[in-house]
Predict the 3D structure of the following.
Amino acid sequence: MFDFSNENIVLIGAMLLFVAVVAGKAAYRFGAPALLLFLGVGMLFGLDFITYRSLEVTQFVGMTALCIILFTGGMDTKFSQIRPVIGPGVVLATAGVIVTAFVLGGFVWLVAPAVGVELPFMTALLLAATMASTDSASVFSILRSKNQGLRQNLRPLLELESGSNDPMAYMLTILLVGALSHSSGGVGWGLSVVLFVVQMVVGALSGYFVGRLAVWTINRINLANRSLYSVLLLAFIFFAFAFTDLIRGNGYLAVYIGGLVVGNRKLTQKQPMTIFFDGFTWLMQIVMFLMLGLFVNSDELLQPKVLVLGIAVGVFMILVARPVAVFLCLSPFRKFTVKARLYVSWVGLRGAVPILFALYPLLAKTEYADLLFNVVFLSTIISLSVQGTTVSGMANLLGLSYEERESTFNVNMQEEVKSVFTEVEVSEGMLGKSLKDISLPENTLVMMVCRDGDYFVPQGKTELLLGDKLLVVSDRDDELAASYKNMGIDEVMKLR
């Protein structure tokens, strides 16, 4: 039993974070999702060191972490990238969640009696609703660590879906919890549907206006201490969630929409804030998974009915429910090949969000709430273990992956700078020439050359060698693109 004095809480917190970060490093090396290791660390400490079972604290920490994660996901999503896939992405994030919930809910309702549990259909649907949204944090941490890109615009599609389907799953969960609690003062099914529509609309509008307000304020407040810009934006995140919830909107949707607005507008100190929120998001994910790992009761998790039902739900979700939802929702969009649809089906892994949503039935004290939580927890572990460890391999198997080039030059410029920075590699057609012999547009300059890992500022007489990487800045982007084409350079990396 652990002594929860203030000093010991700080000590054990530091130990948990350290072990989690080291576990995350090991996860990258072996191709496993880091968040699965964070969850395992929490469970390990819960077994041997800490007795912890605070439902309210766990739910509050999870809610706070999810706000940060959703906002950062929206902030990192560029409209230019998601525009070609916004249709299928929105369909997957809305109709896909509903189809997944009903397919999985029907399966749970049918198989639960086989393990000695007579679940009403609404309760089975509630279990499915908590698991209906996907989690992309671990997927793209693996892909990006391996410099692996995806063809057919699959990465922005998956990012858009996973970033925007949590609010839909949340609303379904709250709706079903309310319907199941009708006899004890909850709202009825018809009113729940009306509230669902209202919350989605109010959440989207509130997120947009709070996002615009955040951009307007940050660009005009002129703070002397630049570090406070990140703190100010953090305040807007929590304000967006709390204010939207206060006016009966969906706070999670508001946070995500607010992130989209902020990330796609010109913003003072945008680069430092992006770096801050990237690290802060990882901290929130680590803390959330550690808390959920500490919260779970391992004895309950190992009960036969939980094991059998949890494994059955996890396997059915991977092999049937997710593929059915994906193929049905993407059927109107002919541009995706069968292999692309199979990959989208496979990458629909579950993360912390289903476990977090499974806390709501516990808070409402609905019937079978403990069973639902444990089954969701076990199914999530199965999804992370099976799908999370094969994300990269499945892309290779289906022929959908390619190796992404890493930028040799790191360019951070203010938004006001209109010049375009590009990175190109010297081609065979440029061999035997010096820099002054290359035809470039006016107002264009080769600023730096990287040769065998060494960086230097070139002169006009500098002879170019095969493999040299050039950092080029220009005010004439279109003319420069034509010059690259004439020189036989097909691969151009824009740095900003």
